[in-house]
Design a protein that fits this description.
- The structure is a homodimer.
- Helix content of chain A is about 40%, strand content about 10%.
- The first copy, chain A, has about 270 residues and is an alpha/beta fold.
- The first copy, chain A, has two domains: about 15-175, Alpha/beta knot, CATH 3.40.1280.10; about 195-274, no CATH class.
- In chain A, helix 1 (about 30-40) packs parallel to helix 2 and helix 8 runs parallel beside helix 10 (about 240-250).
- Chain A starts with 19 loop residues before the first strand and ends with a helix.
- The interface between A and B is large, with 75 and 75 residues.
Chain lengths: ~270, ~270
């Protein structure tokens, strides 16, 4: 999806240090590239590759990195998993299946909160991902303090490597930033005040009275309440209130009824009811 | 990542109805395939494609669907967005950027909770995704009740189509299933009782006393507390307690010290302290 703005400052500097992403024996350069892209989406930058058979910094990885070349360029390569983990204070191992190890298991959200807490306390966390087909070996998992697994449909649990990294990055970014949407509803117009909304009610209800909308007088009160509730649920801005006044006026204009009725709408409700 | 078990029943039947995924003018068959795969990962099955230029059910889509052919086969194709949305009671539009429309904005987690609530109340929700490069058009967004956007690094916000669907599917699955990890730490052995842990403390502390570990008598109490806390943080099972007894015995066995000391370890702490 579109929306990248390279003029915007990378958020990473203002966030707690993100987890190092450690790939153990990735087989395909495409996947290393896609992992780099997923990391960049969520402001992660430190990639470590252990015994990458893939040309992890080759052309194919770069194509799949889709612009996240800074991640590929800064990636560090190791022969031993232990060396790739050496400076980390919290290592999490991702696994798709229960692997019979007596290790606490976190869903990605809980793992992400743990990673943020570790960084806030001055430590450094890493999340380890295994081979595309077979995942991490048991001895590799035993190097980690905890296991992370993904809540997926058990009948179709084949998350690919970049998708697994994407979910970890996404949850980390949520935990690090508070998880608010990237933008809020634009508010070009101030919210309408109670008095302005009351005046709108008066306008609408007056025109409906004139048009014979409330045929059963004993139902009028509850129908009015329903209409008022509908408008309240809309949480109208001042501009919305003006638009609704205009719509009601346009609909009622020229209709048979008390002359000039359409012009009372700027008065607050209490004036009209008096 | 590995872990698919096709013998397991698809969870979908036991969950509230998942959101329909609506793709508007997807350009690449690969992306439709990857979307199908991401949907299957999270037990979503209903895909609708509006004016797909891609051969959305062709060979390429199937390769990228990685086995999620049931989603491709059941996909419905439409010429008009309105027709693809006709039976839905809640439509959410995904956008990467603020699009100037006065519509409430949800992050994926809040959107997912809304979709689950809608299904629980008997309605049916759908999430609409736009073209790979340009997203949804403003008139298409105006058909939706709400907007969904993704918390991403603003300097690198290019989530691809399948990744965006993956995040929506993931959050929906979390909301629909409670978000627990796919498995918990295996508990092959019952948790140790307080008495069993106290006996372990007695064994360890006795051997450490004999070995001259507590050189400063005034520090003994706080050192003992630290050791006990380390073991409590381990949350040891009964098997772990036995393993630790064995380790202490193996370490202290044959070491100079009061004869037979290593054999007291089955007694609870209070016996030893008397």
């Amino acid at each position: 999806m579109a929306g990248t703005d390279h003029s915007k400052t990378d958020l990473a500097a203002s966030l707690p240090k993100g987890p190092v992403i450690i790939l153990v024996e990735p087989q395909l350069a495409e996947n290393v590239g896609s992992v780099a892209r997923a990391m960049a989406n969520f402001a992660l930058s430190e990639l470590r590759v252990v015994r990458g058979r893939a040309q992890a910094d080759g052309e194919k990885a770069r194509v799949f990195a889709a612009g996240a070349h800074h991640v590929i360029d800064a990636a560090r390569h190791f022969d031993r998993v232990e060396d790739a983990l050496a400076d980390l204070t919290l290592v999490l191992a991702t696994t798709a299946r229960e692997r019979g190890q007596a290790k606490p298991v976190d869903a990605p959200q809980a793992a992400a909160e743990r990673v943020v807490a570790e960084a806030t306390a001055g430590g450094r966390a890493g999340v380890m991902f295994g081979r595309e087909r077979t995942g991490l070996e048991n001895d590799e998992i035993s190097l980690a303090a905890r296991v992370v697994t993904f809540p997926v449909n058990p009948a179709y649990a084949s998350l690919n490597l970049a998708q697994a990294v994407l979910l970890v990055g996404y949850e980390w970014f949520k935990a690090a930033t508070g998880g608010a949407p990237a933008f809020e509803m634009p508010t070009k117009s101030p919210a309408a005040t109670h008095e302005q909304i009351s005046a709108l009610f008066a306008h609408i209800e007056g025109e409906l009275d004139d048009g014979g909308f409330f045929r059963a007088p004993d139902k009028r009160a509850s129908m009015v309440r329903n209409i008022r509730n509908m408008i309240h649920r809309m949480e109208p801005s001042l501009q919305d209130v003006r638009t609704l006044h205009g719509m009601v006026a346009a609909l009622s204009d020229g209709r048979p009824g008390p002359e000039g009725r359409g012009r009372t709408y700027l008065k607050p409700l209490k004036d009209v009811e008096e």
